[in-house]
């Protein structure tokens, strides 16, 4: 069962969905346009619980309507390719983008080097 939690991100309180200790993170792996990487000033679209539910349920028309009303002016080129990636709660991650294709990188899976 999903739980709704809030986090503080860049001075904004953002809602997120948590299921079995993992947080729903939205990203767009299709080439052409990113989702959050092309909308850096709107970090809440990474976690928006309503968007997560629309994506998980395949309700693309409802998603488009919701995004248009909640985030007017948002670039939505990557919306059609949205997927949900479940990240363990408290894990540091980043969303990378190459040619519009987003991927999620967990800090623990990267080869960090200490000088």
Architecture overview:
There is one protein chain. The longest helix is centred in the middle third of the chain and has 11 residues, at 60-70. This protein has one domain (3-109). It has 115 residues and is of the alpha+beta class. The strands form 2 sheets. A 4-stranded antiparallel beta sheet has the order 1-2-3-4. Strands 5-6 form a two-stranded antiparallel sheet. The protein starts with a strand and ends in a 9-residue tail after the last strand. The chain has helices spanning 49-57, 60-70; strands at residues 3-9, 12-19, 22-27, 83-88, 93-98, 101-106.
* Major β-sheet strand ordering: 1-2-3-4
**Count of the domains:** 1
Mean pLDDT: 90
| SSE pattern, N- to C-terminal | EEEHHEEE
Which descriptor suits the 3D outline? Answer: globular
| Biggest beta-sheet profile | 4 strands, antiparallel
Low-confidence stretches: none
Helix content: 10-25%
What is the CA-based Rg, rounded?
14 Å
Alpha carbon gap, first and last residue: 43 Å
Please give the count of helices: 2
What is the count of β-strands? 6
Structural class: alpha+beta
């Amino acid at each position: 069962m999903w739980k709704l939690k809030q986090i503080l991100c860049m001075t904004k309180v953002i809602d997120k969905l948590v299921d079995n200790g993992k947080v729903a993170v939205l990203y767009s792996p299709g080439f052409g346009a990113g989702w959050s990487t092309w909308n850096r000033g709107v970090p809440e679209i990474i976690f928006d619980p309503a968007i997560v539910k629309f994506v998980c349920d395949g309700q693309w028309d409802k998603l488009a309507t919701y995004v248009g009303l909640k985030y007017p002016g948002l670039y939505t080129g990557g919306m059609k390719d949205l997927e949900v990636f479940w990240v363990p709660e408290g894990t540091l991650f980043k969303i990378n983008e190459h040619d519009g294709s987003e991927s999620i990188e967990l800090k623990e899976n990267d080869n960090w080097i200490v000088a």
